[in-house]
Amino acid sequence: MTSNWKAILGVILIYIFGCFSGVICTSIFLHHKIIEFLQHPAVVLSAALEKRLTGNLGLDANQKEQVHEYFLDNLQHRKELQKQIQPQVQALNQQTIQRIAAILRPDQTELFQQNVDKFRAHLGANAFSPTTGNLSSPQIQPDTPATNSGAATPPAPR
Fold first, then answer.
1. Is pLDDT of 95 > 90?
2. Residue 123 domain flag
3. Cys-Cys with 132: which of 52, 89, 125, 136 at CB 3.0–4.6 Å?
4. pLDDT of 107-135, one tens digit each?
5. Which segment of 68-77, 120-129, 133-142 scores lowest on mean pLDDT?
6. Dihedral (CA of 42, 44, 45, 50) sign
7. Angstrom distance (rounded) from CA 100 to CA 158
8. Which stretches within 40-133 are classed as H helix?
9. φ, ψ for residue 20 (rounded to 5)?
10. For residue 88, is it within any domain?
């Protein structure tokens, strides 16, 4: 092998190793960012919003601190508002589930109940599942007997 081929092979190997190390470093970085977002989505979104809205303003340290406090205050107020409306959201979601169940055939209702249970088990406490301790929710009971005749027309809004 001549020295030209050795040099070309060396450059190619360096390029390939550089690509691999770049992919590995990027995946590690993104993994950490995704984990951080999944653990604290509101805080991460608030920080991103804060940076986007004020990043190019040239704020001094005092201004940055005040802006940061305002965003934290906003985040706290939003959490309190979410707690206030959560029961209404849960009731609305439960009503939606009941309305869907009302137009399903018995075999569809059973599968739908399984889907809802899987969703609740997967997500834990959320708008569809008020408590994490009681994942076995009451079974879906259609408001009317399930027939195929009503499948084309949704029930009237309540």
1. yes
2. yes
3. 125
4. 999 999 999 888 888 776 554 555 433 33
5. 133-142
6. positive
7. 13
8. 41-54, 61-102, 106-123
9. -60, -45
10. yes
The tally of domains found in the chain comes to 1
Burial state string for 116-142 with b = 16 or more CB within 10 A and e = fewer than 16 = bbeebeeeeeebbbbeeeeeebeebeb
Q: Is residue 126 within 8 Å of residue 84, measured between CB atoms?
A: no
- Those residues whose C-beta lies under 8 Å from the C-beta of residue 112, and which sit 6 or more positions away, are 100, 101, 104, 140
- CA 20 to CA 61: how far, in whole Å? 40
Is residue 153's pLDDT more than 50? no
pLDDT digits (tens, 9 = 90+) for 81-93: 989 999 998 899 8
70 assigned to some structural domain: no
> Which letter does DSSP use for residue 55 in this model?
T
Lowest mean pLDDT of 26-40, 58-72, 129-143, name the range.
129-143
- Asked if residue 98 belongs to a domain, the reply is yes
* Full residue range of the structural domain in which residue 148 is found: 78-158
Q: Give the type of residue at 81.
A: L
Neighbours of 25 (CB within 10 A): 10
Q: What's the residue count for the chain?
A: 158
